[in-house]
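Notes from the pairing session

We agreed to fold both candidates in a single pass and log them together. This is the raw record for the first candidate, unedited. Please don't reformat it; downstream parsing expects exactly this layout.

Candidate A
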Amino acid sequence: MNTEKLVKNIIDQIKEAQIKLGYMRESMRFYYPLSSVNAMLDMDFKSTGELTSFINSKNILDNTIIGKLLLSVHEDRIEVSVSADGVTYVYENIPDPPFLRDIINFFATHHNAGIDEIRSIFEKYGNDYVCEGMPAGEDFDYVMYFKDKSIDEYYYCIKNEMHHTIYHRFSKVDFQMLVCKEEK
């Protein structure tokens, strides 16, 4: 079982929240579908209860870089709780990823951005990125991501609704599951 991907994803989510909202010394909770956690851990648990029981009974996430992570079942998802000390560790020790900082600041100041404007943020970090239109009727208009994962490993799904442009950020696996789910 590889816990590094899960811990990195949690750190990335904390960082995104801190860039968007600022830092506060408080605990944070994140909710994941079973399929996402299975993919990050390279495991194949059949239920949220099975996964959380196994992780908690073996103390697998007790000594991560951001402290002990508590897992529980919340409805049909896995809740991961990070202590205020873990959130503070991220704030004090993990630098803001430059692309993430820039894309968040861009969307905060450009509420009705066009795709060419969004492309310019990606192009600031390199021309080796993908920008694909989504089929009509999908939840998003475009998906954008870098081929070079060292710049940023996430898939940014862009939607313009009623003159307001938003993004949602997904891991590659979650994006693929989203697309496959929508195709059914």
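Candidate B (folded immediately after A)
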Amino acid sequence: MEKKVGSYRWVIVALLFFATTISYLDRQVIALLKPTLEKEFGWSESDYSRLVMAFQAAYAVGLVIFGGIIDKIGTKLGYLIAVVWWSTAGVLTALATSTIGFGFFRSLLGLGEGGNFPAAIKSVAEWFPKKERALATGIFNSGANIGAVVAPIMVPWILAVYGWQVAFIVTGGVGFFWVIFWVISYNKPTEHKSVTPEELAHIQSDAEEESSPNENKTSWFQLFGIRQTWAFVFGKMLTDPIWWFFLYWLPSYFAETFKLDLKKPSLELIIVYTATTIGSIGGGYISGLLIKKGWPVFKARKVAMLSFALAVMPIMLAQYCTNIWQAVFLISLAAAAHQAWSANIFTTASDMFPKKAVSSVVGIGGMAGSVGGIMFPWLVGGILDAYKASGSISAGYNIIFILCGCAYILAWGLMHLFAPKMEKVVM
């Protein structure tokens, strides 16, 4: 059946996957270089948290800006601009000579990377019917995990042989190669020569009614007045910061609690981030399978997301771990569940809103996640500095893991409150 339908839409998913991989490779570099840069620049945990906050603040702005821009100028050009921007910022980070310099370049990186998810989610909405969107989103979203897996292998080697500056140059430069393939390969399905009539019919099998002649004009003020927007906002605000914690502090957690040497490739980190790949793809597959079995789209998403929220909760037991592999198991489960949650929450945006508003809604929700991502690092830095001063930094991480375990079930409850049936928005 798949051969008869055609499969070029999966080429598009591959492009989105590699862009997301590159994005997370670029942002993960600083976490792996943290011990080296702490010694060279004299950073405290609070100093490092401020660098994370600078990235998150710029990322929040970038999500909103690019969300609106992509809805206006289109996915192809909008994505291209975003990747060129953040790749340039990644390369230029090698020029930083002070903490302020790092903060500046991390802000530029965050601003550009704000374009990734609005563009990718809009691409999925353009190229896939609803029953396949969660799986497609899960596949490209797993690029976040692959980037986090590649980084612990690649960055320590570059650091040991060439130094930290070259690590930023190499990882930042990869994005320019992706741009070439994007320009050659991407277009709207209705305008693409590689899309067969059968595949186009499949893509448009649940096509929306185009009710407005100004289909590319969506008011942010209008979106803020819709309760489904707030369901997406709270779902992202409470859970995105947990993923940022997994990205930016897990290497330090393993190093400080279990004496992991971050100057060598880390099997423990590779396992954690590999598990998240399984979670991302599996999470998208599960809700898609329920839909194929006849479940209503919104019910399938909600039941799947509730199960993922519950799967994060065992991370609260990390405080009782007596060896690193126990911690690796609990954190891998939580991180995989986050990515399964992420694959589905992104899809709820395209489920609830018309295509003309998807990038804007994803931008608003992503901004909310980044606002949480600004506040949580501030809290994490303060907790860890306080417990480090008392000689018990592991106890600080235990408090943070409790917060992580509670975040998703609270987010699910608020999403259900604001969108109990997640009806389709008519605009």
